[in-house]
Amino acid sequence: MIDRLKKLFATPASEPVKPDSHQLAVAATALMVQLSRVDNHEDSSELQTIVDCAVKAHQVTREEAKEILEDALSHAEDATSMYEFTGQINDHFDQDQKQALLESIWRVALADGRIDKYEEHLIRRMADLLHLNHREYMQARHRAEAAAN
Questions:
Q1: pTM value?
Q2: pLDDT tens per residue, range 116-138
Q3: CATH T-level assignment (fold) for domain 2-148
Q4: Burial of 88 by CB count in 10 Å (0-12 exposed, 13-18 middle, 19+ buried)?
Q5: Cα 21 to Cα 41: distance, rounded to the nearest angstrom
Q6: Ranges of each domain in the chain
């Protein structure tokens, strides 16, 4: 597990290596983890939503999704910024995949029944870092809200 993370984030610039699907899933999940922590109240409904989103987005089993979450939790602890995650995602996701990721991020924010002002601000920053415009940001939010009802 640690070796995979080291390979993803410590590859020398002279040796570009395309991350595998697990590494990209960890990067995407780490963004959701960071959102779940921004209001200083990471609850079980948010973590369950992260696992559900990983199962759906990455076509993995629930056990694999839990492993992805554990990897993301440990890496999110050490992260100094979101750029290491959004950079990987921007390099390997198309616009539709990035918009689907933002919808998953909104679902995590909605999981506890309320959207904190810090969560909303962080989601806006994530959307900007993922090169998603305001229309795409709002569409992702509306889809997540519709799914929550």
A1: 0.81
A2: 889 999 999 999 999 999 999 99
A3: TerB-like (1.10.3680)
A4: buried
A5: 29
A6: 2-148
